[in-house]
Design goal:
Strand order of the largest sheet of chain A: 2-1-3-4-5-6
Largest sheet of chain A: 6 strands, parallel
Shape of chain A: globular
Shape of chain B: elongated
Helix content of chain B: 40-55%
Number of strands of chain A: 12
Largest sheet of chain B: 3 strands, antiparallel
Largest interface: A-B, 75 and 74 residues
Strand order of the largest sheet of chain B: 3-4-5
Radius of gyration of chain B: 25 Å
Mean pLDDT of chain A: 93
Low-confidence stretches of chain B: 1-5, 11-28, 282-297
Oligomer: heterodimer
Chain lengths: ~450, ~300
């Protein structure tokens, strides 16, 4: 049995995959505590005090001050190079270093020390990370790779709407900076997109590049839970005689100054435009609108306010209150005739798998300042016509209504089938994807052992 | 609350009766220091402070802990009732007020008129407001008594702060009650597309935090952050960081280890600085006044 370290993989998301691994190998990991008492699994306790005991002030001290200074200096350089306002261009002051810079460094160093303490006792044969471009798993993945350990990244999302071709270079876009040697994706489409992206943005050190696999992303899609339309309509209390439009709620992952407030304002403008233009059309009286909120809006302290806002928008424009859902995505997708999302969303892939046409409405802040060509060419689904994009409510509803016409719908179905065939897109069972990844892992472990 | 045998002490208001205040923590190990005992005036003051600060969830939790103790003074009971009313817990507040009324020599719960009125509305008993003495002025109850309904004007927003991190944002909206001017803060997670009614913890009047008043405030207070220039500046920063992380050999290892989080860190610095600069001393509040008639009932 080999020892596999699961870095950032979560049982609630990848439970089946983790259990399949655990039936064959010894596991340790950063988020495996929920499985601690599960029979049939051999787990080493990464939360054991002795690994945490390695993270002492004495162990941290030599590098903490030095790394904090280095990071602060780098930030100062970048601020000076990019900001014209003197207040914004200033180097981080002591308050900012204490509040923002030093804690970041401390967290990274603690993660590294703890992981090294674990490695000192337990030789790890493979590190499997979950989305290692993000902060929660990047540190360990990098350390492992630097130490010569085999590394594999398992993604938990789908890259259906990733930018394609030269659109990857659009000003203001950061590529994904994977850390592991191997990155597993779902299908040939994703592999093509991310290989191209990496080629456009090569690492200075070629040793940091990743090899992309397409063994399948081992999680359920919404399509796996698809219901017959009538059943979904009945569960949601929707009228089967009316065209059903599902509007995806937006989630603004605010990592930039513009996104922080500008994006919020743009989102308000967008939804107001959608409701106003819907109310101005006869279709507004025919269609039944369902809004599925993003999970980030479904917290108990967020949901009531967000729901009330959509109801308020509808009321102000004389529309009946939409059905606002915090969950029941499978029912909502099964019931809908057309999906409308504000900018690219992960549920566009679910809609594709379920044979639903989609219209993406772009608020100002998410078009990277691009013109009309963006709306036709920036992703492969747009180019293939299985998804349409626009910027305003009037045009969005025009396209939605068009998708309800038999001829347009038939053309969509043909385009969808051709696109799926080309890239091998389909709702494959998770068990098959898991088996493929396990086979790859066994082969990789055999290579290492040899 | 129905199962708690609660007796409100019929002592004169203000008389100090030692009350042991239970906390949410389980009993400590043997030999641990005893829980401190504080007087009822301090308890009432603590509840009042939490209520007026808008920390209603914490105040309700502490209220329930206190009431579970079984005996409270009138002062504490009255403050507890105010907390429950402000939190919209009409049923529990009504029970407590009945107990208060039975304990007071003159009857009645001894609460201010606005609190009693709000409780009646929470209980869906608007007819009971007719029993209340008339109030003057332009407060919510005066306007109700003049037949204008239970108006719900927007919060007079005075500030907006944001904590940026790796994911959803935490916004803190600070504003003044449109009725009495009492300042309070609301926390909003991830989105400002909200319509949030609330009761003022001071005067018990209704107000709302709404997406359109937030939008108006942002456009007036932070125009630089919603202009195309802000987006372009963001894009320029990404271009710079991308080139540095991928191509510049002088980038320290700690920055490369952070990866995209290095970009977020830069932005967090910039966002904090921009918000601080925009707030500035003496910034005017860009809020609509309470309408002479109207608002949303």
């Amino acid at each position: 049995m080999s020892l596999l370290f699961l870095n950032g993989l979560m049982p609630e998301r990848h439970g089946g995959f983790i259990r399949a691994l655990g039936r064959r190998h010894v596991l340790a990991g950063t988020r495996l505590r929920p499985l601690a008492d599960e029979p049939g699994l051999q787990l080493l306790d990464y939360a054991d005090d002795r690994y945490l005991a390695a993270v002492t002030p004495a162990a941290l001290a030599p590098r903490l001050d030095e790394q904090t200074r280095a990071l602060a200096a780098s930030l100062a350089r970048d601020l000076a190079a990019t900001q014209t306002d003197a207040r914004l261009a200033a180097a981080p002051d002591a308050r900012e270093i204490a509040a923002l810079v030093r804690p970041r460094v401390e967290r990274l160093l603690k993660e590294e020390l703890r992981f090294r303490a674990f490695l000192a006792e337990h030789p790890v044969d493979l590190v499997i990370s979950g989305s290692d471009f993000s902060s929660h798993s990047r540190v360990i993945a990098r350390v492992a790779r630097r130490l010569g350990l085999p590394t594999l990244d398992i993604e938990h999302g789908f890259f259906f709407s990733r930018l394609t071709g030269d659109w990857c270079r659009v000003r203001g876009r950061m590529p994904l900076l994977f850390a592991s040697e191997h990155v597993n994706l779902d299908n040939a489409l994703e592999q093509e997109l991310l290989e191209h992206e990496q080629a456009l943005f090569p690492r200075r050190d070629p040793g940091e590049a990743s090899e992309f696999l397409a063994l399948g992303t081992p999680i359920d899609t919404v399509a796996t839970q698809e219901l017959p339309r009538e059943q979904a309509l009945a569960r949601l209390g929707l009228d089967p005689a009316r065209p059903q439009v599902l509007l995806g709620g937006s989630w603004i992952e605010a990592r930039t100054a513009n996104m922080l407030l500008g994006a919020q304002v743009d989102a308000m403008d967008l939804y107001e435009d959608l409701f106003r233009s819907l109310a101005s059309r006869p279709f507004g009286r025919q269609a039944q609108l369902t809004i599925k909120l993003h999970p980030a809006d479904c917290r108990a302290d967020v949901l009531p306010g967000v729901t009330a806002a959509y109801e308020d928008l509808a009321r102000r424009h004389g529309l009946p209150a939409p059905l606002v859902l915090g969950d029941a995505l499978a029912e909502a997708m099964s019931a809908c005739d057309v999906l409308v999302t504000p900018s690219f969303s992960s549920i566009l892939y679910d809609a594709f798998l379920m044979g639903k046409p989609s219209v993406v409405v772009f608020p100002r802040y998410l078009r990277f300042g691009q013109g009309e060509a963006w709306l036709r060419e920036s992703t492969l689904p747009l180019q293939a016509g299985v998804c349409e994009a626009t910027t305003g409510g009037e045009d969005a509803w025009r396209r939605v209504e068009a998708f309800l016409e038999p001829d347009r719908r038939a053309r969509f179905a043909r385009d969808r089938e051709a696109f799926a065939r080309r890239y091998g897109l389909g709702d494959r069972p998770v068990a098959g994807k898991t088996a493929a990844i396990l086979e790859w892992i066994e082969q990789r472990l055999a290579v290492t052992a040899g | 609350m129905e199962n708690v045998a609660l007796r409100v002490s019929p002592t004169a208001p203000g008389r100090d009766v030692a009350v042991s205040v239970p906390t949410a923590n389980p009993p400590g190990p043997a030999g641990a220091p005893a829980e401190p005992v504080i007087g009822p005036q301090a308890v009432a003051a603590r509840l009042r402070q939490a209520r007026l600060a808008g920390r209603l969830r914490a105040a309700v939790f502490e209220t329930m802990s206190i009431l579970a103790g079984g005996t409270v003074t009138q002062e504490v009971a009255a403050e507890a009732a105010r907390v429950l009313i402000a939190a919209g817990q009409g049923g529990m507040a009504a029970q407590l007020c009945r107990l208060l009324a039975s304990a007071r020599p003159g009857g009645g719960p001894g609460l201010e008129t606005e609190a009693i009125a709000r409780l009646a509305l929470l209980q869906q008993q608007p007819d009971r407001l007719a029993e209340l003495p008339p109030v003057t002025g332009s407060g919510w109850l005066a306007r109700w008594q003049r037949g204008e309904g239970d108006l719900c004007p927007p919060l007079r927003i005075s500030d907006l702060k944001a904590a940026i991190a790796n994911g959803p944002i935490l916004y803190t909206v600070t504003g003044a009650c449109p009725w009495c001017g009492h300042a309070r803060a609301f926390e909003l997670h991830a989105t400002l597309l909200v319509s949030l009614p609330a009761l003022c913890p001071a005067c018990f009047g209704r107000c709302e935090v709404t997406w359109d008043t937030l939008r108006a405030f942002i456009r007036q207070r932070f125009p630089a952050l919603v202009a195309d220039d802000a987006r372009d500046a963001d894009h320029d920063l990404v271009e710079h960081v991308r080139q540095r992380l991928l191509e510049d050999p002088s980038v320290p290892e700690i920055a490369r280890a952070l990866g995209q989080e290095y970009h977020f860190l830069l932005n967090e610095l910039l966002v904090r600085r921009r918000l601080e600069a925009a707030a500035g001393p003496g910034a005017p509040a860009a809020v609509p006044a309470v309408p002479a008639a109207g608002g949303r009932p």
